[in-house]
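Form 7-S
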Amino acid sequence: MKTCANCRATKPLEDFPFRDKAAGTYRSECKACMRKPLSVSGPVPLAKRCNRCAVLKQLVDFHAAPRGKYGRTAICKECRNTESATKRDPEKQRAYYQANREKTLAYQQARRADPAVQEADRRRYERRQADPAVRAANVERARLWREAHPWKRREHALNERYGITPAQLDALVEAQGGGCAICKLALESTKTTHIDHDHACCPGKKSCGACVRGVLCHRCNLALGMFDDDPARLRAAAAYLDRRG
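Output:
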């Protein structure tokens, strides 16, 4: 048991946040008091100075902290990220995850299934999206990620729409001789290349992966669609051309 320095209530140690988890020490205020925002007298400024870099920055450049001055941390996001990066040991983190993989996954699944956590995540997302600066930063971060990982977008699109991997697609094209499965012309680019699947198995634009038939150029794929994938109509069209040719 421990007495909170703020509310003076005696509570179990589980109700106090750790000061140093390795040493087993706890903070003087309980979690409930730590979550209460400090009262601020007067108007809240739009900017504050970081305690690390001493640069005057906007409040959106600081993490939210209910107990911090003006509801923000004393250290800006940039300085905090820099400190975290220097303290982080990727090899140690990877080793811990491999040794406690099942425990970590079970904890994550239980946390995601908690209605309170879901509601908190939803509110946090809505609060962040309401900030124009945060939205602009998210858009820019997503653009930079797409430029740095172009293959990830292709991998996700293939798996989501056709149920295959980029390696399976490359093997399929190689088995066709590098060209269209019908006209045998070279496949110029991904924009004019179409993955053909059996619409009797999977109607619509998505495929389960098992009914993928081949890779076609734009003209051949369009022709199959115009003939409704009907072999009889295609043979009749070929016979018509032979007679009239």
